[in-house]
Every structure is written in structure tokens, then in C-alpha cells.
Amino acid sequence: MDQYKELMEHNNKLDRKQDIVPPSGQFTQVWLDNQKVDAVLGENILSVLFAVGKNAITQNDHAKVSGAYCGMGVCHCCNVQVNGKHKMKACQTLIEPGMRIDTQTNRLEEGF
Amino acid sequence: MQSSTPVIIVGAGTAGMSAAVELAQAGIYSIVLDEAPKIGGAVFRGPYREAIELPHLDSKLRKKISNIRQQYHDHQTFIELRLNTRVLGPAGQHSLLIRHKEDVSELSYEQLIIATGCHERSVPFDGWQMPGVMLLGGVQLQLKSGLVRPGQRMAVVGTGPLLPLVACQLHKAGVNVLGVYEAGKLSDFAKEGRALLNRPVLALEGMGMLSYLTANSIPMHYGQGIVSVSGDENINKAHFAKYTDDWYPIDGTGTSLELDCLAVGYGFVSRNQLSQLFQLEHDICPTSGLKPQVNVWQQSSQDNIYIAGDSVGILGGEGAMVEGRLAALSIAQNRKILTPEIVNKHAGTYFTLLHKVKRFRAGFDRIGRRREGLLSLLKPNTIVCRCENVPRSAIDDVIGQGVKDITSLKMRTRVGMGDCQGKTCNSYCQDRLGYELKSTDIGHIKPRFPLDPIPFSALFDGVQ
Amino acid sequence: MRTDMNKKYDIVIAGGGVIGASCAYFLSKQKDLKIALVDLKKPGNASRASAGGLWAIGESVGLGCGVIFFNRMTMQNAAATGDDLPPLRPHVLPDYFFEFALKSNAMYPALWQELKDQHGVDFKYEKTGLKYVMYDQYDKMYADSIVDHIPGLMDQVNWLSAEELAEDEPFINKESIGALEFKCDHQVNPYRLNEAYLEGARQNGVELFLETEVLSIEKQGSRVMGVETDAGFIACDTLINAAGSWAAQLSKMATGIELPVYPVKGQIILSERLPKILKGCVSTTDCYIAQKDNGEVLIGSTTEEKGFDTTNTLPELKELVNGAVKCLPMLNELNIKRCWAGLRPGTPDEFPILGEMEGTQGYLNACGHFRTGILTSAITGKLINDLYRGLPLDMDITPFKYARFLTQKESHHEETRLA
Hints:
Radius of gyration of chain A: 14 Å
Oligomer: heterotrimer
Largest interface: A-B, 41 and 57 residues
Distance between the termini of chain C: 43 Å
Strand order of the largest sheet of chain A: 1-3-2-8-6-7
Shape of chain A: globular
Number of helices of chain C: 12
Strand content of chain A: 25-35%
């Protein structure tokens, strides 16, 4: 049963393909659009997104899709939903163990 | 005036940390705030996560990163670091409103040093808002701090000394770099040779980068630039062309590349939102955007607020280091901790270096001065303000109606009234209005308080 | 824009906020006068800072800003004395103020049409109504007391039970016990109202000297001859003081007397853009809330005497947030996009100062509108126009003339002034 679970988890996991050097340090896992990803404490959400090759991550208030542009918290184009909270900047939010990250969501579309 | 209250420094980059260290050397305490999780600023922050090897970053950079950390460690007793802390603006008469995670509080100051650095100038063109188009510095941050590749097949376009540097770093990081497109002409660089020789080491480094590109068959195109990008959800193609002297794309010279990420760099503008909220005096500068007025000691129009580094005017790391130290020396003299004689003695070398740095930068600024052709890169439906979804056609309309300044432009189109407070679109609006009205006296998009959105939950006391 | 040294104007209006702009518009309609308007937007300019409520009954019975202020004072008193005091009684204004407010209120539908159709600016007049939301018996007592004071306006009043309120405004805290609604209290976009008046005036021939500062007033004896500005000298026969929180400075230059107009700071919070979550404007004992035409929810306001300071301060922001989240709990999941502080032009009795001043010829007051500048801009513009032209006025403006300060003793509003 455990082997099966492990296999399922492995299949349901996103691979990091774009790391320049292999991640090292304190490992943890976060959920990215309901898929598990390995992450390292100290990273921000944007590095994890780039590591798995996700660029189109934000839906803005005008239903336009965008990706990180300035990378430093100025442009507001990398907003993602984190643990249910909207408009969190991926480039300035540090990952935390078990964090749920949802891309391309927008409060105006979701409503209340 | 003997005072023991810590000096508040906004920004833990080169300018801020240099100021903190210089103050520490005079026995003065400081509190340094930075929104990032590490000190060093965008340039010297280094990796966010642990890394043993950094093969894509040269040893000089790595040394500078560890130097700044070492300097801090050597003077820790006098420097209180508050990282992951954002300054939202002034609160009351002598305080800052700051936020650390869900905690919002007021921090009072007697003397303040603003060292908020710079952000990149954004130049819109057909397709610029598609995922995969990134600003050059943002790309560099992923390499240096994120330790990730932002794409697999990339090109670098724009103007300035950062283009070849980032191209080299991308290549060393394992990205397939298809070309570098510098709008400036090769002959322009030759003309500025004398200015560039003010900082011979930097000039030599530049040449080293160019050799690396040649050795790795990465073409360096001069006098060429972006025309448009295309793709589905992400970009998959970029279209370039030769540029005229005024940077208009020349028909019939178009080339295309298939890629998944484009790095665009047109220089930096000072990050002056905080200095503006303090209603300090500013001047307009075509290169750096709005520059706060400071005296030789980096003192602003309010004598207890100093400004140092790129947030005063883009001069790069050396300028930032010197200006931070000058501000610190002035405060030390102000507090009667150091005598004017000692201060002037230390300052002497700093002033000389600053002078050289300014002349070097002036050379690049002249080459990279934006030309009107960039304004033609937008189609009528190209979005200018992403936050408020304002296309170029809306701006064309109100210009046709005779709008005379940026505030009116803003009020009529909502450009600059969104979340980023115009930091992204101000550049185009200024260049466009300035060009149409043949004037620099057109104003700018003013920042609002707070500088960043605050969650209601961070201020709410009650139980839900 | 430089002035024309050789041109003489009939009227110069100093101040281009809603009051000055309205005066310019109404005076310009007949296109028979040479009018110039001089304006410099200073930090705290009330027209730009305003919520844009047209709360004729609401403000006249002390809701909106008033009740928040009184509630806070009650809490401060209770904290000081250790007693649990019931809130103070409502602060209902005199009948002549109701008249002023209601008459102005009634002008807006036609004004909206006029400025839209004839001058192309839409100030986003929205018929929202204003609901005073009640949480407990004290709030209900307050509401009962209000209703007792306005027997003649019962056709404009509507009681909503808790169920009715929940159905009408599903996002308001379900623990509220109901609301008292004023059906004729609506809202506009205050910035656009200001623009609309100015654009109408401009199209009618008024010359606008924007970004221009008044430096001094030239007089010959007791008669105003002209206005010296940083764009040159403007000769005129009549000067209208519509300088808002800066009216005292201007009156001193023009008449030698400093009007008792002083800045009353009000902090405001604006949320990010939201889908429509409020049908009507809302007033509670903690704050007022209005969703503006752009979807942003505006929350206000404090009442502070801090001179010309326009910074935001944490304790006050928290008070507003606590009040707003109590009323609209879902705000707790959202962001504050912007905060600011406006400077309302306050007067000792909270009424505007309109009309002539003895001792100076060629000078008219149109200032001191405190909390209801947006609402009463329409009638002020009309009254000033009619006064200037010697026409019969829509109402007696004696209670609003400066002369009242010379004969009145210090009013019972003295205790509202903080030390």
C-alpha cells in the first residue's frame, strides 16, 4: 500500500527542470496547482515556478494572463493565490512547508 | 545635538549597508529595513537558498556578496537588521509605517536615510505583456538569487552595459542564448571611449564579456532592437530589426528567433516613491526618472532625511557605496560625534571617486539615451498600463483632446491608477507626452500611500 | 498660463475645488461675465479627498462623520471615567441646514443630466440610498432619536429589519439588528463632479488658471481691485473666496480679517477593486462605507485637528479597519489599496460662510463647507450666482453669513473642539 502511495505521489509530482545548481539545504514540499513540488527553505515562490517551467502564472483584474516581469515586487504581474489569499507576489513570498499555491486565479472572477 | 536614537535606513543594498557600516564605525546605531530576506540589494543579495557552487556567477561577484555580509557581521552590534520588512510610507510627522508579514507598525525616526535603490525602466512594445517577456534585471535576479533559469531559449534586447553581462551569466547557467541586440551603434561606444576610461577596470570587464560572447558564438548585434513578440499563452517568437539613428525599426531588415523567454533592458530609474511621499523636492532627469534633490552630503530638502545610492540617481554600486558613506559622515558630524575636520578628510576620497563614477556613467547614459523610435513600437491595442488595462489608443485619444500633463492623462485614462502605482507605465507616459508636447515639464505619475497594498487582516484587531 | 495684464475680469474665483468650480459654472451659464478661476491643488484638498456622498439627511442628523466622532468621544469618556456610558445623543442640525442640504440634494439629477449632455462630463450620480446599520440597542435608540427629530421627512425614511437588511445587503454582518435607510441620500464621484463643473465653466468661457497660486490681493481702500498670482496679476471687480481649508489665509489678504475656517483632518481608506458588494452607502457608529463606481470600497473617516497634516496614522487606520470589517466581514480577505487624509474646512458652528462681508467691497465668501461640500456645492453655486446678480435667493442665507460670528456667543459646539 505504501509503495503504491509513493508511486502515486511520485507521478503526481512536478519535476524541477530549470535549477542552475541542484537544490540543497532544508527540503520541503509545497502544492502547486494541486501538484506536489519539492522546494527548499529560503526560496521564494517565483523560483519554484521557474524551476518547474511555469511562466503564465497570474490572471489580473482584467482577465489577462501574465508572468513575472520585473522579478522584484514592482510590476504586480506575478500575483498568485497562497493558502487561499489572493494577490500574493510570487517574487516576494518565501515558501513555507505545505504551502498551497494556485496560479491564474483572480478574486474578481472567483467572487465571494 | 548629542543623540542616541538609531538612524533609520530604508534599504539594505550597497548604499544602505555602507551607510550603516560607516555609522557603526563612528559608534552610531542604525536600524536597517529591507523588504528582501537578505541584505545586499538586488545586486549583491546573492542566492536565496543554500548553494555550494555558483558556476554561472564570476568570482568577483561572489566575493562582493560575501564582503557585504562580512562587513555587516563585523559591525553587528551597531546595526539592527529588519528584513522582510516593507516601508509603506510616512506615518504622522516623524514615523514610518512598516509591515513585517501580518504585523503593521509605526517606526519613529530622528534621522532617516532613504536608500531604496532603483527599478527597471519598462519600455512597452507589441506583445510585451505576454508571459516570457521579462525585464533584464528580473532575469538576472533569477540567476543570482533564485538560482533558476527563466527560460531555455533566450535573447537579450535593449541598451546598456548590463546586456552582455546578463547574456554571459545566462549562458553560464545553461541557457541557450540566441543573441544580444543592442540598440546603440558600435560607433557610439567608440565615441564614448574617453568617458568609459574613467573606470578602466569596469571598461576592461566589459570587453571581457564581449570576448566571452564571441568565444561562445553568441552574436552581439549593434544598432538593432525589438519590434514585437508573439506566441500563444507564452511567447514563442521574437521579431527584431535594424534601427535607425532614432531607433525606428527599418522595414525589410526584420529577423526572427524562436524562443521562450526574452530579457529586455533599457536601464534603471530611481526608486523614489518614498522620497516623493515625503514631499521632498525632485528634479526631472531623462535617464534616472525623477531625482530627489540632495546636497553634497546627500541631504534632501528636509534636513533630517538623507538619500543615497541609485534612488538619488543611477550611478551603480560604487556610487551607492560612496553616497551611503557621505550621508553617514554628515549625520555623524551633525550629532557632534565626529569633527568637521575628520569628516572632511574621509569625505575627500569619496568625493573624488564619486566624480569619476559620474563621468563614467555619463558616457553610457549618452549612448543609451532613449530615442523616439521606441514610441512607435506600440500598436493601438498594445496595453500601456497593465494594472488598469489601458491601451495605447486611449492615450492617443486624450492626447488628441489636448491633454497637457501626466496628471490629466492619468485622470482621464486611469493610467497609473492601479496596484503598481504607475511604476511600470510612468516611463512610457513621460516619454510619450514629452515627445508630443516637446517638453519635459509634464509631471509624472505620483505615488500613493501606502506604497504597497495592505491586507485588511493586518490591521484588524477583532475576532472573526 | 500667464495672465493678461490688460484684461479686467468681472469675477475672480479663488479656489477650484467643488465650491469654486460650482460658482464658476453657475455664474458662467449666461455667458455674460468675464470670469477667471485660480486654483492650486494643495495636499489635503477636500474635494479630491472626499467620499462623494450626497447624504443630505444623513449628515444633517449627524450620521456619516458626525456619529463616528461622537461615538469615539463616548468611548474616550468611558475609558477615562471607568463608566460604561451610553452613547451621546445624536447631533441633529437646525432646520435651515436641512433646507440647505435638501435643496442642494434635489438639484443633482438635473445637474447630472445637464453636465453630461451639454458639457460631456459624467459625474457618476448613483442612487444608492444611505443605510444606518445598527448593531445593538444603543444604535437603535440613536436611530429612534433621529426619526423623532425629522417628522417632516418620514417619506424619505425606511426601517429595515435584520432579515430585510440581510436580503438587501447580503454582505453586511448578519449580527446587525437592522437599519434605518434614507432613501434620498445618494452618491457621486467627487473628482468627476469637480471636473464637470470646471469643464462646464471652461466651455462657457471661464478662464482657468490652474496650478496657480494667489500671492496677494490688491485693494484700493476697502475695495478689491485684483489678485496677484504667480502667473501674473488679474484685475477684477469681485473676488470670491472658495479657498476651502485655506480660506482664512485668503480672507486675511482680502479683508484684513481671518475667517474662522480651520482644517479638520479626515483619514480615509480605499480597498482594491471589487465586484459589487454593496447596494447602498452605509453609515455605522464606527465608520461609513461606500462602494464607488470603479468597484473600490471607500471607508471613512476620522475627525482630527492636526493643522495641515495629511499623513495617515496607524491607530486611526486601525479604528477604521476594525469598524469596516465589523460591518463587512469579507473585507478581512482583501487588501487596502490606498489611504489618504483630506482637510475639511471646518467652522466653529459647522455651517458654511457665504455672502458679503461688511467692510470690504467686491468680495464674497463661499467657504467653510466642512463635511458637506460635495453635497452643498450645487446650491452654493446657485446662491452665489443669484446673490451676485441681485436675484431672489432660494433660501435665506443669514445663518451662513460671516456677520453671525460677530453677534453669536460661542456656540454649543464648543465642546467638539479638541484641546
